[in-house]
Write a structure and sequence with these properties.
about 15% strand; alpha/beta; binds the ligand CCCCC/C=C\C=C\C(=O)C/C=C\C/C=C\CCCC(=O)O; binds 1,4-dihydronicotinamide adenine dinucleotide; eight-stranded mixed beta sheet
Length: about 250
């Protein structure tokens, strides 16, 4: 159960973010919903307020590419609920004609939200500690010619999360940092004819199943610096990323 915990989820007006918000609420957390699409955010807020109670749900519109809006998101959540224990940096876009905005939203947005969330969560700032989950993708672990920019943005999220988790600012902060790498999930993001071939081959993860994995990640207090891979068939922490000292040691020995 997440009773007494407070979660912020970016991009939670629909899709994976919305389903995870509902799973957190069902497990007793208080949730601050957030999205750049204000009318859809309002509709999701109204729906959850009716179902889970106004005292448990809050909404703050936020474009993750805007530093002031991200600051207002975390400050506003603390002002409303008293603290932040869980941040799910989920907001993202798929195939997009403006490649620079894909990097801005999917990669730089996650980095910005991580840095600012840490300021409110770390124990040295009198925060409660907790977990920051950064949404990457299976496309952040392998070459994906279908969309090199999307893949690049997600490789960036994996690299940042696994590296920052070991940084001195994080190791003693009480905050865990974890990357999430699903294959295809049943949202409107995969409504694209070019993906049909791959989807038929590897299947589709149900949002509700992915949300259960996210809940498992929140509850696991030993997962700092790990990377969760989720497929339609199974999920596991990928643990074969070399650490920099391993690379240097093996170079010295050869
Ligand atoms: N659907 C899939 O197959 C997979 C999705 N992902 C990732 O999961 C995350 C969520 O995607 P889905 O739920 O599938 O897509 P979605 O399109 O249903 O949801 C994404 C949400 O992010 C919001 N958003 C977009 N730009 C934003 C910005 N600048 N600031 C704040 N919010 C913004 C959208 O308005 C939307 O509500 C994305 O990061 C995506 O890359 C990862 C692996 C697989
Ligand atoms: C893989 C590019 C997808 C573009 C964005 C839209 C949906 C995102 C879905 C995912 O993040 C799922 C990730 C990976 C699926 C695994 C492999 C697909 C490989 C496709 C390729 O060869 O390019």
């Amino acid at each position: 159960m997440l009773t007494g915990k407070v979660a912020v989820i970016t991009g939670s007006a629909q899709g994976i973010g919305k389903t995870c918000a509902e799973t957190f609420l069902k497990n007793g957390a208080k949730v601050c919903l957030s999205d750049v699409v204000v009318d859809r955010l309002q509709a999701t807020y109204e729906e959850f307020k009716l179902q889970y109670g106004a005292e448990n749900v809050h909404q703050i519109p936020c474009d993750v590419t805007d530093k002031t809006q991200v600051e207002d998101l975390f400050k506003g959540t603390v002002d409303t609920f008293g603290a932040i224990d869980i941040v799910f940096n989920n907001a993202g876009v798929g195939i997009h004609e403006d490649w620079e905005s894909v990097i801005q939203i999917n990669q730089i947005g996650v980095i910005r939200c991580t840095y600012l969330a840490l300021e409110y969560m770390k124990k040295s700032s009198k925060g409660p500690g907790g977990i920051i989950i950064n949404m990457a993708s299976f496309a952040g672990l392998c070459s994906s010619p279908l969309d090199p920019i999307y893949a690049s943005s997600k490789f960036g999220v994996v690299g940042f999360t696994l590296s920052h988790a070991l940084h001195a600012d994080v190791v003693d902060s009480g905050v865990r940092m974890v990357a999430l790498c699903p294959t295809f999930v049943d949202t409107t993001m995969i409504d694209d004819d070019n993906m049909k071939y791959f989807i038929e081959k590897i299947g589709v993860i149900k949002k509700e199943k992915l949300a259960e994995v996210v809940l498992e990640m929140v509850k696991d207090e030993t997962n700092n610096g790990k990377c969760m891979v989720v497929t339609a068939q199974f999920h596991y922490y990928k643990d074969d990323f070399p650490k920099v000292e391993d690379v240097f040691l093996s170079t010295k020995q050869s």
